[in-house]
Amino acid sequence: MARSKAFDETATLEKAIELFWRQGFHGTSIQDLVDHLGINRASLYATFGDKESLYRRALSHYRNINTERAQCFLTAHPSAKTALRELLQRATAPPDKQNDPVGCFIVSASAELSQGSTEINEFLLLNQETFVGLFHSVLQRAVAEGEISADRNLPALANLLFTYYNGVKVLNQFNADPTPLQNATEELLKIFD
Questions:
Q1: Contact 66, 128 (CB under 8 A)
Q2: DSSP string covering 116-127, please?
Q3: Fewer C-beta within 10 Å: the chain N or C terminus?
Q4: From 1.10.1740.10, 1.10.357.10, 2.60.120.10, 3.30.460.10, which CATH number describes the 51-192 domain?
Q5: Which long-range contacts (CB under 8 A, 24 or more apart) does 168-177 make?
Q6: pTM
Q7: pLDDT tens, residue by residue, 116-135
Q8: What whole-number distance in Å separates Cα of residue 114 and Cα of residue 125?
């Protein structure tokens, strides 16, 4: 009879995300994972494979959660422009550096690993495609609601929003004063007026 796992895989993935996010892929050893996750090496390897396999699963789990949250956030607002404004303003808010990892796990992964792994690079491109698609959908809604002009280049604007949003996530990691980013966001949002 097979033994049942003594740990919750989802909770363990979330702990792995936390550790990889804080220390990076290269800065995290297998022993760090064993200690932080509270599982033994055999269970770690049997369930998740090697460190890179666990990292890819952690990235996928994070992307799935983040995509769902962003989609819910963007569609929950009665106004598409208001949804975009609030999303970008939240991105520029000072992070709680004591309680949460700073920035975005996927943005951190792209800075650390995009040149080293074809699989990670493909994952990052898929993530970009997903989020550009989310922004494009919100822009289409804004056109349908008469909030922005129908003659705008929506694919280009969706790419601009994705690029800006991710750039803010990077800059917010070390900027002590959020005011310049908040001012830049207000200027960016004027292109939708």
A1: no
A2: T-HHHHHHHHHH
A3: N
A4: 1.10.357.10
A5: 168/88, 168/91, 168/92, 169/91, 169/103, 169/104, 169/107, 170/103, 170/107, 170/111, 172/91, 172/92, 172/94, 172/95, 172/102, 172/103, 173/95, 173/102, 173/103
A6: 0.83
A7: 678 888 888 899 999 999 99
A8: 10
